[in-house]
Amino acid sequence: MKKIIAVVSVVCLGACVCVGQTAQEVLEMVKKKYDSINDAQLKFSQKARFELARIEEHANGTLFVKKGNKYRVELEEQTIVTNGATVWSYSLPNNQVLIDNFKLQDNPFSPEKILTGAPKDFYATTLGRERVGKSEAIVLKLVPKDDQSVVKSMKLWVDDGDWLIKKVEISDVNGKQTEYLVNDIKVNIGLTDSRFTYQIPEGVEIVDLR
Question: pTM for the whole thing?
Fold first, then answer.
């Protein structure tokens, strides 16, 4: 559940690319864009394919994100919230909320870690350009240098005009491929910290794992 927050947050962060521009140079431009964003709200779609089971799952959601590891993901049957210290994971079908401590080391795919650690933690290459919606995007492939990583590779589609990441595709060692696509994004809209504290509904079972 925490990985959903982290990965989708990466999608929302990101003019024309010069001939011969390297993947690391593109990542540097994306990081500069990210550094200028204090908070953001985006609507996204998620598609997960399971190679062995040959099934595909789809979901839509809204993400609110703010500097300081603050995230809120709202899905149809699940809400995940963290204020950078505590994580609340609410399941509508189970009528249950799990509470745990937020641990940055347990989020290897957080935007902070990917964008600041990419040069030393990933092998990065450019794969060319593809159209995402109405925009041209540079396609990057990141492969973790850590052989023990659960992720085999990650692809990022970086908008050709504003350095925002519009799409992420992750392939893991278990044969699962997950795609996140940004449908709408608003940045620096002044989200308050109260958005990132979960108010537990009355009658919900509470499981405190702290």
Answer: 0.78
